[in-house]
Specification:
The complex is a heterodimer of chains A (323) and B (299). Chain A is built from 13 helices and no strands. Chain A is mainly alpha-helical and 323 residues long. Classes of the chains: A mainly alpha (323), B mainly alpha (299).
Chain lengths: 323, 299
């Protein structure tokens, strides 16, 4: 399909060899000869981009000010959706859960990931095996392994967590029946799934520090500790901030882990919404209650938070790399 | 390399705890592997067994189903589930086809755009570039509802079109390719044009071969995203014949505690899904690391 359109475009407007033949310098014909082929080539992407990225952004903003339910034509209702959202205790529950999850998961996975990279960043087999072990959740993770976690955290006697707790003489816990344990469980799984990624990024960051700097410092008499605090850490700062901020952006939007762990036929957030995150809340409002206007308002709130995080991320220096 | 070895006292102190951490990271995989081959009574045993005592393939295919009167033998094995749908391997194939087609189309159309943006700019191409840049700040939640409405209004609910076409235009792929194309000498492109090659031919015969390493790297995050997607799939598909693997896995996980063989089947399913993923990773380790760190390191 795509090839056909581009081929036709090139055929109707072949790129002439302008040096050899005299060409009209102005007019539609000249314009199409010069720019028709490249514009034809971007067409497949641009059509999809407009249909499924640009137009939806505008439509979502519009819908967030309407009472759209997916069936009747939307009516403009002003800021009602935003006002209602700010009066909904479930919204605050979801916001607090998402922020807590984001904060702890990204902080723990960044710091432990850094320690792992510092300890196992070498070429030795043991180091490579360690990196592979932590990378495994990224490779073989996904929805299936969340099911395995659900089994491990099972409230019944055969749940692995409770078995281990009993071995140490502690009482067994109803992980899915007690609202206190939903977030810690989510954080453990979140850290588990992203540690290897952070570790690998940090290893790449460490390797980009020129060895000459260390050699020069060693000649000047700097010991291992001084080299770590005065060279490694300052030079790694952009990488640390990058990992932290992108980790925050990612964890703030987490959907399938809380959904697979906690959703039930009549509830998506676990007991007392203890595992309800903002994206799951959005799904619940938009696609289980079909309040699509209200769900769009939640989406724009998410956007605001993520936008601020993205700006921080760009400030750290990514934008300089684009050109 | 000096930069790799950090010899600080607290790191030496942490070595042992970090090895223990590595072991505990593997626990879910060990539990999945052993659980997949444990019999139903063994899975429900208290305390649980730490290695397989009663090896069985019943979680994959329960040959006693319908024959034995024992309640514990009444659970279907993984391959006996979804008799009205495609069967487990059918869903796996479904997901595989969707992932392959989205990834292929995504890379092709994005590389065309990058080629044009760098080597063949036209009036308005800077506007396009700016829009692409801006769109990367938009999280997927914002476009989720309008995209669902669009797919519904196009009549695409329960079609492969819904699962593939809306996912193909990815701005970050264009950016990644842009870096690689900037490195291609313009003389190379110009001399091909003087020899009479048109843009399509230059793109296919000169640009794409040079882009191959970049394509291999960026294909991995794109493919992982499509392969693991649950939310978009549950929105646009609700019939058994178009379901994707994550949908089926989520459904199995939801029934974990409600059927005698529930847990064993979940372990069996995630084992089958993760084995090819691990093999794939072992083969393309370098591309994995390169592709997943695409945003982090300076190209």
């Amino acid at each position: 399909m795509i090839h056909k359109t581009t081929l036709q475009q090139t055929r109707t407007a072949p790129l002439g060899m302008s040096a050899a033949r005299p060409q009209p310098r102005r007019g539609v014909r000249f314009f199409m000869q010069k720019y028709g082929p490249p514009m034809g080539l971007v067409l497949p992407f641009v059509v999809l981009f407009v249909l499924f990225v640009l137009w939806p952004v505008l439509r979502s903003l519009y819908l967030s000010f309407t009472d759209y339910t997916g069936i009747k034509a939307p009516n403009l209702v002003g800021a009602t959706n935003y006002v209602n959202m700010l009066h909904d205790p479930r919204f605050y529950k979801a916001l607090r859960n998402s922020l807590t999850y984001m904060f702890f998961t990204s902080l723990i996975s960044t710091s432990v990931g850094l320690l792992l990279a510092l300890s196992f960043g070498g070429q030795k087999l043991a180091h490579q095996l360690m990196r592979a072990a932590f990378f495994l959740p990224l490779v073989a993770g996904g929805v299936g392994i969340i099911g395995v976690w659900k089994w491990i955290a099972s409230s019944e006697e055969f749940g692995l967590f409770n078995t281990v707790r009993k071995m140490f003489g502690a009482e067994s816990i109803r992980f899915f029946g007690d609202p206190h344990y939903a977030l810690p469980l989510l954080i453990v799984i979140g850290v588990w799934s992203v540690l290897g990624y952070n570790m690998v990024i940090f290893v790449a960051g460490l390797r980009s520090i020129a060895p000459e700097i260390y050699e020069a410092a060693a000649i000047d008499g700097a010991g291992p500790s001084a080299r770590f605090w005065k060279i490694t850490l300052p030079l790694l700062r952009p990488t640390i901030l990058y990992v932290l901020v992108t980790g925050m952006i990612g964890t703030f939007q987490e959907f399938f882990t809380p959904y697979v762990l906690f959703s039930d036929t009549n509830n998506v957030g676990g007991i007392l919404d203890s595992g309800l995150t903002l994206t799951v809340y959005l799904y619940d409002v938009g696609f289980r209650h079909f309040e699509m206007g209200a769900a769009s308002a939640i989406a724009w709130l998410l956007f605001t938070v993520i936008f601020i995080l993205t700006l921080i991320n760009l400030r750290i220096g990514r934008i300089n790399d684009l050109d | 390399m000096v930069g790799e070895r950090q010899n600080v006292w607290f790191l030496r102190l942490l070595k042992t705890p970090l090895y223990l951490l590595a072991l505990s990271v593997m626990v879910p995989f060990y539990w999945m592997f052993t659980g997949a081959f444990k019999s139903v009574p063994e899975l429900k045993q208290n305390p649980p067994t730490f290695y397989i005592h009663d090896f069985t393939l019943g979680n994959f295919y329960n040959s006693k189903l319908g024959v034995s009167k024992d309640i514990l033998d009444q659970g279907e094995g993984l391959f006996q589930k979804f008799p009205n749908g495609l069967g487990f391997f059918g869903y796996m194939l479904n997901s595989l086809l969707i992932t392959a087609s989205v990834t292929t189309c995504c890379l092709l159309i994005a590389s065309l755009v990058s080629y044009v943006l760098v080597k063949r700019p036209f009036p308005g191409s800077t506007v396009l570039f700016t829009l692409l840049l801006a769109s990367m700040m938009i999280p997927w939640e914002v476009t989720l509802i309008p995209n669902f409405l669009m797919v519904r209004d196009l009549g695409w609910i329960n079609t492969y079109s819904a699962l593939t076409i809306p996912l193909m235009a990815k701005a970050f792929v264009v950016f990644y390719f842009r870096q690689a194309i900037l490195a291609i000498p313009t003389d190379l492109v110009d001399s091909a044009r003087i020899d009479g090659a048109n843009d399509l031919r230059i793109w296919w015969q000169i640009v794409t071969p040079l882009l191959r390493p970049a394509m291999a790297a960026i294909a991995i995050p794109v493919a992982l995203g499509v392969w693991g997607d649950l939310l978009w799939a549950i929105l646009v598909v609700n019939d058994e014949s178009h379901s994707t693997l994550p949908m089926i896995l989520a459904q199995l996980a939801a029934n974990l505690n409600y059927s005698p063989s529930g847990a064993g089947v979940v372990m069996a399913a995630s084992l089958i899904v993760s084995v090819p993923a691990v093999v794939f990773f072992a083969l393309f380790q370098r591309q994995f690391v390169q592709g997943l760190s695409a945003g982090a390191t300076k190209g």
